[in-house]
Target: KH domain-containing protein
Amino acid sequence: MQSTVEFLLHKLFGDDAEFVVSENITDDNITTITIDCEEEYKPRVIGKRGRIIKSIHNLTAIKAKREGVRIRVKVSD
Model:
């Protein structure tokens, strides 16, 4: 999942942007993907009304469902 999110971010914002994507799996079989980026990119990652981050979540949720995993995607504060 982590590589999928990294791929999407680099395609959206180019190779200039620096993103750190971390993956954490809990006991409940929930995978949490955390996107840590520079302050200037956070509004662009979230998008208007959260459309970009929702799209990233939806695309990774499709892959997660095929693998039988629940997923959360969030942008770090």
Q: What stands out?
A: The longest strand covers residues 30-37. The CA atoms of residues 4 and 59 lie 9 Å apart. The domain at 2-75 is CATH 3.30.300.20 (GMP Synthetase; Chain A, domain 3). The two ends are 21 Å apart (CA to CA).
